[in-house]
Give the backbone structure.
Amino acid sequence: DCQNWDKLVQANTRMLFLDTPSNPGVEIIDLEWAGKFAAAHNLILVVDNCFATPYLQQPAKWGAHIVTHSATKYIDGQGRVLGGLILGKKELIKEVQFFTRHTGPSISPFNAWVLSKSMETLAVRMDRHCGNALKIATYFEGNPEIEAVRYPFLKSHPQHDLALKQMKAGGGIITLTLKGGLARAQRFIDQLQMISITPNLGDSRSIITHPASTTHSKLSPEERAQVGISDGLVRLSVGLEHYEDILKDVERAIEKSK
Ligand SMILES: Cc1ncc(COP(=O)(O)O)c(C=O)c1O
């Protein structure tokens, strides 16, 4: 809902911070709109591009001043190192650099080397993540045990056209809302055999996460409801395995958790 944003900008508002696709709801925010909005209100536009990666989406093209990545995710791609990237114009980055120098979040040379090697395979990996994710999302859409399947490149996604406009492909994250709430989601997760249970994402191996009880457990139930995180929602980070192996594991767990 971009209609009421003008009213939210106060005299002391300096920055607009957003992630698209969002975590975990994979909602899409219009980057062209955000770029124009930030320019009109003299705001620094910061885009967390973690889910999309620079291969699928370049927010700077739409006017983002700073783009951030949790490199721990797709940039590494194998769950080996922690790291982050802050990209932007020199004047802004100078301030960030000053802050990081004096507060400590500096990457180790070894982690930096691992990440620089990972970058060489980013495009190839993302093609596979996205191809697998689209096949899996398409397969489970309409499954009677699932209330909703959300994936940016599914036609049923509310911002599908926007996703097509600003992303090269839909990314590797799908959300599934299982019928039966928390108890069903827990049974489903417990029944998975191949897919790992962890709050990470963007690994070569498929990962399942239950946001309501882990990554987003700090939000109140009302706040979670506002951003569409129900107790039955699980986040699937689709890995690089053969898509049929992932599909079979999910399908089996859906059946066994009935
Ligand atoms: C979209 C997004 N941004 C940022 C982060 C934070 O990552 P880190 O813990 O590496 O700082 C995460 C972690 O899950 C994420 O999913």
Observations:
- The radius of gyration is 19 Å.
- The chain has a mean pLDDT of 96.
